[in-house]
Amino acid sequence: MRQNPDKCHQTISNPILVECTYGDLGSDRTLILIGGSHSLQWLPALEDIALKRGLRIVTMTKSSCIFFDATDPEHFIAAAKAYGLDDPESCLKWNRAARHRVMEVDPAAVLTIGTRGHGPDETVPGIFRSLWRDLAAADISVLALRDNPWFATDVVECVAEAADNPSTCDQPRAELLKPIDPGAGLDGPLLSFVDLSDLYCDSARCWVVRDGVLLYRDRHHLTASFVRRHASRLETEIAALIDQS
């Protein structure tokens, strides 16, 4: 994830919705990138895609927060605590504002992270799916990405210590991802669930370095170099969703 000099990514405790615009600013086709830092880490690829595809990218992102259904506050707070969010109340207020703003913008699509949990606990929470149904009812398409693996220790530190053989920092896939894609079968006319796990892992292991490129900048955030390298893969998924809408 690149640095954010324009301060568009909201802090953990501040519930105020902040949005910024990238790509083709005059385009009438808008894609909203929304959620937490794992959504934001895809912005470098989206900036490249936007200029090729004539897309206006609007970001609505907040640290330690995810975009999910905030219609039931008690359910939201319970889910936020279960998923380890640092300030559930702030995230709740931000989500209410974000949902309202998404409906106002009426984008061609929103892009967000679609899974939570690691290894055998990886799942697509119901509180995600209910929000996606509401967006579909408003004729807004959703591109939900399966989240990337979360490593147990800092990848950069491990690679620095194992510079001669960084593959020793790889981890077994079964420890980081569920054997079967938890989003399998969820696709619909206005929902595309995208599993990019083959970019991070083979059938046995999840990598820290691939083809000379470092995948992570800490335990679980992807590097801008890696994300940009795979922009064409994301572009294909975005085009398939937006072009049919």
Automatic annotation (TrEMBL):
Residues 8-233 form the SGNH domain. The keyword Hydrolase applies. InterPro entries: SGNH. Keywords: Hydrolase. It comes from the Bacteria. GO terms for molecular function: hydrolase activity. It holds the Pfam family SGNH. This is SGNH hydrolase domain-containing protein. It comes from Paracoccus rhizosphaerae.
